[in-house]
Structure formats: structure tokens, C-alpha cells
Amino acid sequence: MRKYILNPETLLYEIKEASLRSKLLKWLLLLAGSLALSVLYLWVFTSVLGMDLPKTALLKAEKARWDARISLMNSRLDRYESNLDELRIRDDDIYRSIYGMNEIPMSVRTAGIGGVDRYSYLDGLESSNTLKNTVLRLDRITRMTYVQSKSFDEVADVSKRAGDMVSCIPAVPPIIPDPSKYTLTSQFGYRTDPFTGSSKLHTGVDLAMKPGNPVFATGDGVVEAVAFDFFGYGNCVDIDHGFGYKTRYAHLNTITVIEGMKVKRGEKIGESGQSGRASGPHLHYEVFYKGERVNPMNYFDLSMSKQEYVAMVESRNADKDDTPQRRSFSVSLR
């Protein structure tokens, strides 16, 4: 809007020119007013009406989309983790158990991989951050899947030799099952110790018989130890059958095998006696499964036909005779 003033000399109305100072002041007042109105608008928009600024709204929308994706990923991870746990249970309780393999400890299944700075890029996030927890969870499941895959590879390799397992399990008596030659004097379990009179766990079975009775390997395997313990087992042979099985033959009079020697089921490994801490001539026989002593009576049947057992022994002897490289040993460690 223009401002006119009367010129007294010309008696005419002329346009009044505003000074630079007044113009500057006018623009400063206008700018201050605009800023004040803007601040008032933002305050009313955000504090009074509770609405977000456009940029904030866009960021929140983007965050909501990522949260939805992470939530969907965690739902899928729930299913994967459940399936992986089912595979773990099946692996430990069925597959590895069938083949006499030890369970894989959880400390191994969840063992970390990589260096100490593996998660350094997550240091700026709070421990409760959903993205951080999802990354850690995904990495843990990846590691467990890798270990499970390796376990199945191991089981598959053992299963290829499953036919050998049948002959390795200690499934026959360690002596010819002729009732006229032996007496079952002590079974597996707690009994009164013949030396101390106290109750004590008997870790095997005792078969009383005259010294010199032949003792045979109850399954295919490798002689793990040949030893003499004066105050314990006396002349003793340990055989590792693989698949988690081991057997022990104690109080022998003589031993006909050496450490590292491969033996077959029904092959003679020594003769019964009374060596070591024994109250009378007998064979003490133990079975180990996965490092634990188990009841031998669960693995053999003393009612087995004598003729069938002798035929098995003769078959092993025939196989041994056909192998010229094989040598026989007969030693007494007393």
C-alpha cells in the first residue's frame, strides 16, 4: 500500500518514500512474526494435537515395515528352531543310540564360531533390541544346523558299517554254555562282598569253574588292554568292540592274545583261573556300553545250545587256520 503526502510548495500529493531503516525493521518484524507462527504451529501440531512431523511419520512408517519383517523372520526361526530340536532329539536318542555313539553335548552344539569382534557392529544397540536379538539367534541356529549336519554325516558313515555291528555286539557267553562245567555264582548288582562283608555293587557276573576252562571273545573287536592286577582283576583282558561296547575278562590263568590284536567272536582269548583278588577259581565278566557298566545278562543267554556254541568256535578256528599271517600267543602274567 502506497503512502501519499501533500507537498506545500506544489500543493500536490506525492508518494512518500520509506527509509532503508524502516524497510529493514519491517522485514525483521515480518520474519520474527513468521518464525513465531511456525513455532506455534509446530507446538500445536505435535504437543496439542499429538501428530508427527512429516519426516518423523515417514521414518516411523519405515520402522514399522522393518519391524514387521523382523517379526516374520522370528516366526520362521521359531519353526526352524523347533524342527532342529526335534532332529537333535531323534539324533541323540535314536540314531546315535542305535549305533552306540555318544550324544553330542549341548555345549558343543551351541559352541561359538569366529573371533571376539564378530558382533562388534552390534555394540551400539541395546541388549533388548529386536534386531540384535534376531541376528544373535540366527547365528546360533546356523551353528547348531552345521553341527547337526556333521552329526548326520557321522551317523551315515557308521550306518554303512551297520552289518559289522551285529558281529561286534557281545551277544554270546564268554564260555561254552555247558552247565556241567560252570556255576553262575554272582550276578550284576549289589551283593555282600566276600572279603569285607559290606554291601557293594558287583559290576559283572561271576562264573565259577575249574582253572583252565577256555574263555572266548563275545564279539568281534580289538584287544584294548592286557594287564595284571594283584589286588584286583588279576590276569585281565579288555576288548573294544566299537559302537560303544567293551568287555572285560578277569581272574584268568593264561592269556592267548596281546594288545592291539584283532579278535573274532568265539575266538579263544585265554583260560579261566584264580589270579588276583579272587575267593575261588572263576571268570569275572563285564560289559561296558558308552563307558558305563551294564548287566551282561542282558546281552547273552546261558541256555544257548552247547552244540551251536561249539560250532561257532570251530568256525572261528577254521578261519584262523586259513590265515597264515595270524599268530597265537599264550602267556601267563601272574
Describe the structure.
- This protein has 334 residues and is of the alpha+beta class.
- The chain folds into 3 domains: 45 residues; 76 residues; 153 residues, Glucose Permease (Domain IIA) (Distorted Sandwich), CATH 2.70.70.10.
- The protein is built from 6 helices and 14 strands.
- Strands 3, 6, 7, 8, 9, 10, 11, 12, 13 and 14 form a 10-stranded antiparallel sheet that branches.
- Strand 1 and strand 2 form a beta hairpin.
- The C terminus is likely disordered.
Structural class: alpha+beta
SSE pattern, N- to C-terminal: EEHHHHHEEEEEEEEEEEEH
Q: What CATH architecture of the largest domain would you give?
A: Distorted Sandwich
Beta-strand segment tally: 14
What is the radius of gyration? 44 Å
Taken from the alpha-carbon principal axes, the silhouette is rod-shaped
How many H/I helical runs? 6
The name CATH uses for the topology of the largest domain is: Glucose Permease (Domain IIA)
What's the number of structural domains? Answer: 3
What portion of residues is helical? Answer: 25-40%
How much of the sequence lies in strands comes to 15-25%
Distance between the termini: 130 Å
Note the main sheet. 10 strands, antiparallel
Q: What is the top-level CATH class of the largest domain?
A: Mainly Beta
Fourth CATH level, the homologous superfamily of the largest domain: Glucose Permease (Domain IIA)
Summary keywords:
334 residues; Glucose Permease (Domain IIA); disordered C terminus; alpha+beta; ten-stranded antiparallel β-sheet; 6 helices
List the topology elements.
Elements: E1 4-7, E2 12-15, H1 20-48, H2 54-98, H3 106-109, H4 130-159, H5 162-168, E3 183-186, E4 189-192, E5 199-202, E6 205-208, E7 214-216, E8 221-229, E9 234-242, E10 245-255, E11 262-263, E12 268-272, E13 282-289, E14 292-294, H6 306-321
Antiparallel strand pairs: 1-2, 3-6, 4-5, 6-13, 7-12, 8-9, 8-11, 9-10, 10-12, 10-13, 13-14
Helix pairs in contact: 2-4
